[in-house]
Amino acid sequence: MKRRSMLLGTAAAAASTAAHAQALRLHPALADGVRDTAVLDALPGKQPMIKLSYRPPNYESTLEAFRTAITPNDRFFVRYHLSEIPDIAALANWRLRIGGDAAGREIEIDRAALDRLEQVEIAAVCQCSGNRRGLSAPHVPGVQWGVGAMGNAVWRGPRLRDVLALAGVKPGAVEIAYQGPDVGVLDATPVFAKSIPVDRAMDENAIIATQMNGTDLPHYNGYPARIVIPGWTATYWMKHVTRIEIRSTPLASFWMKAAYRLPTGMFPGSPFPTQDNATNRPITDILVNSLVSSHQDGDSVAAAGFTLSGIAWDNGSGIARVELSLDGGASWKPAALGPDGGRFGFRSWSVTASAVAGKVTALIRATSMAGATQPEKPVFNGAGYHNNAIQSLPLIAA
Amino acid sequence: MRKLIITAMLAAAPALAPALAPALAAEPILPLKPGANADLLAQHCAACHSADYIRTNAPFLSADGWKAEVTKMRAVFGAPIDDEDAGKIVAYLVGSYGGGK
């Protein structure tokens, strides 16, 4: 009797798995475990997004979030490493301490102090290093992200260098390190702490954002202040940042020395002199990439002709062109680019295909202003980073 | 216990002691497959993270992959799991989820 009900349960689970996958339109390359676990779920203040884990919360944006160049705040992806996250009430007492051995002095500032500094705005893509990890072949461990662990927002706040100047940066500084108040359940779990080269922190585009698309940052996107490093992956965009260290030595945290690293020479990326070594190095720059947001795998299109649209982005050189091929890459048709909202942001595009019949595979590739083009195949790596392969989208023309 | 450390870290901002966000309190129970020692996962894994981490990685992780994950949880994240329980947890994961098949 018990065995029978277990079997029935398995059959019911399989049926609901298929239903889930259908409703979510999960990417076909994702593992079966994602298909029977991912659901649409709404965090407070958010529209329903694709829940990959409840605790800590890891939720990716649905495809409709990418139908505009600016990603709406309430559809912007959420990613945490550790489970204990201060609630909004606790964050009302937020303070930022700045110091370190290469700082002129230790200071503590509040939100008003950030607001008093010159405010700048920049559109920039916040993309999780592990975005598309779930598509890796073979699959690799970690949060099984599809294509939605990213977003583009207009970030507003003071420049990071102006904030650092409040404490003073000594000539011997080599890294700026930071952490937030979110922690693990156990005392023994290391706090999520990251660092960047001091030169990157002093760049005019690096800011501490207090606003996102014209309003305060949403709770789960880093309220009340997060680091924004345009062009670099989101692992450096510390949420709720409460501590900044101006350091004369490299940060030796697990999150710098073991995690978020790639084999040296495998991918392009800005140097990180105090963290690079001959074997491996930190992930840094976002690679040129694109995504069709108007259609998904297996969609029907009009045989008389149809229009595909989506977004393209890179690490801030800007997008030079996006192209469509319907003949396996033998010929390419340029897409029309949308308005230029800034070189670090998503660039929208659209392209109309002429008459086709039956099954057709649309290939979409973007090329950056720096001359980088998406590769035909992803470059496999054990962390599942940097999958920027040309999208291959099967469609049915009728 | 975490509260003390955070309070020290944040010095003059003691009100920032972590409080669970409402969404996390409403987390549904995600069943794991039955098997010997499944209770050890509730005891050792569920304290820090929900079971979807296990379920989403389950179809492809090999025995060595599971061993590496459990080792990481102990060595890096400080999970207080002794060698005996760690072995049982890996055996459960491999046995119940197929070990990479």
Structural write-up:
In chain A, strand 5 (96-99) and strand 6 (107-109) form a beta hairpin. Chain A has 2 domains: 88-282, Alpha-Beta Complex (Sulfite Oxidase, Chain A, domain 2); 289-397, Immunoglobulin-like, CATH 2.60.40.650. The model of chain A is unreliable at 1-15 (pLDDT under 50). Chain A starts with a helix and ends with a strand. Chain A is α+β, with helices and mostly antiparallel strands. Chain A has 7 helices and 26 strands. In chain A, the strands form 7 sheets. Chain A has a 5-stranded mixed beta sheet with strand order 6-5-15-9-10. Chain A has a 5-stranded mixed beta sheet with strand order 19-26-25-21-22, with no helix packed on it. Chain B has 101 residues and is an all-alpha fold. Chain B has one domain: Cytochrome c-like domain (Cytochrome Bc1 Complex, Chain D, domain 2).
Secondary-structure map with pairings?
The complex is a heterodimer of chains A (about 400) and B (about 100).
Chain A: H1 2-24, H2 32-35, E1 39-41, E2 49-53, E3 58-60, E4 78-79, H3 88-91, E5 96-99, E6 107-109, H4 111-116, E7 119-127, E8 150-158, H5 160-167, E9 175-179, E10 193-197, H6 198-202, E11 207-209, E12 211-212, E13 215-216, E14 226-228, E15 243-247, H7 254-257, E16 261-263, E17 280-282, E18 289-292, E19 300-301, E20 306-313, E21 319-325, E22 333-334, E23 336-337, E24 347-353, E25 358-368, E26 391-397
Parallel strand pairs in A: 5-15, 19-26
Antiparallel strand pairs in A: 1-2, 2-3, 3-4, 5-6, 7-8, 8-12, 9-10, 9-15, 11-14, 12-13, 16-17, 18-20, 20-24, 21-22, 21-25, 23-24, 25-26
Chain B: H1 2-9, H2 22-25, H3 38-44, H4 52-57, H5 63-75, H6 83-97
